[in-house]
Amino acid sequence: MAEFIDPVEDVNVPRRIFRDRENPLDHLSDEKLLREYRFDRRGIYEIANKLEGDLDHVTQRNHSLPSVLQLLIALRFFATGSFQSVVGDVFHVHKSSVSRVIHRVAGALCRHLSQTVTFPSRVELDAIQTSFFRKAGFPRISGVIDGTHVRIQAPRTHEDQYVNRKNYHSVNVQLVCDHLCRIRNVVASWPGSTHDSRILTESKIGRDFEAGMHGGLLLGDSGYPCRPWLMTPFMNPLNAAQERYNNALTHTRSIIERTIGQLKRRFHCLHSELRVEPPRACRIIVASVVLFNMSKMYSEEGDDVEEEAQEAEEAHEENQQDFQRAGFVVRDAIVNAFFN
User: Are 226 and 253 in contact (CB under 8 A)?
Assistant: First the structure.
């Protein structure tokens, strides 16, 4: 007589186990929520409401995670930069679920970038420029620009391009902030070996300023080229007026350094190392910037082709020199008018 095994009684068949999930909102105080998730209860619910359409599952099959719990899992990771398995232990979910949730929430936040991270309008510029002028006497400043490196693990492809000048793998992130440390523009798509000036030249905000679409001036360090719309320091000041100009520029630029410090302290995942592939790391960086601004709101070919390419490059260099000279003219005018 043939024997068979009843699949119901087969002990080798894995069984799915659904563990009770913990919701920190049920028992943590606002103070502890701020410390561990960087938002209080009101802020968490407001962000969850904004992202509800992006995070809610169509059905409740397989004990799907509600949008609030997904947001809390992602906020815990952004705030601590911990291993995903550690975050999963806090919420009693598997680390693979944590990974999916982090990138689901990051993608939803990136879709809200245009609503949260916007360059000042013409109406806002007067108040911003007045505040910058009161800080150190520097006129017509609409924002301060700088780059910062976010460490990532060595990627599997194009690994050498992500090694920066300090010899670790990173994404070079361009940020522009205003006088209140609000981030007004972010570019997080370039490997760590890319120079700051190239990122600005290739970015939309650089092209917009070149086309005259934004009023006022940006303020940058010596890593950027001097432009009619981008003021940089004198490398070797020749007189007291140029020294006063440099001091005012340095004093005003301290706000972008403070902004970057606040961003990385608030979301420690940017301060440690993002152990994901570069495209996902870039989404996490942008999502952290969106959350940072929200926290401020709540606050909380052949020879011929080669020759043509060489001629085009020479023409480009001549144009760059023209722009540089035009930038020097504007810079000298500011020194004579305000620092002489």
Answer: no
**pLDDT tens column, 288-305:** 999 999 998 876 543 333
Pairwise CA distance, residues 301 & 243, whole Å: 49
Q: Where are the beta strands (DSSP E) in the chain?
A: 141-151, 170-177, 183-191, 217-219, 230-231
| Residue 151: C-alpha distances to residues 84, 91, 200 (Å) | 17, 27, 20
pLDDT in tens, 146-200: 999 999 999 999 999 999 999 999 999 999 999 999 999 999 999 999 999 999 9
Cβ atoms of residues 151 and 261 within 8 Å: no
User: From CA 150, how far away is CA 103, in angstroms rounded?
Assistant: 17
DSSP, residue by residue, 264-299: HHHSGGGTS-B-S-HHHHHHHHHHHHHHHHHHHHHT
Considering only CA atoms, which of 335, 148, 157, 118 is closest in space to residue 248?
Answer: 335
Q: How far apart are CA 50 and CA 19, in angstroms?
A: 28
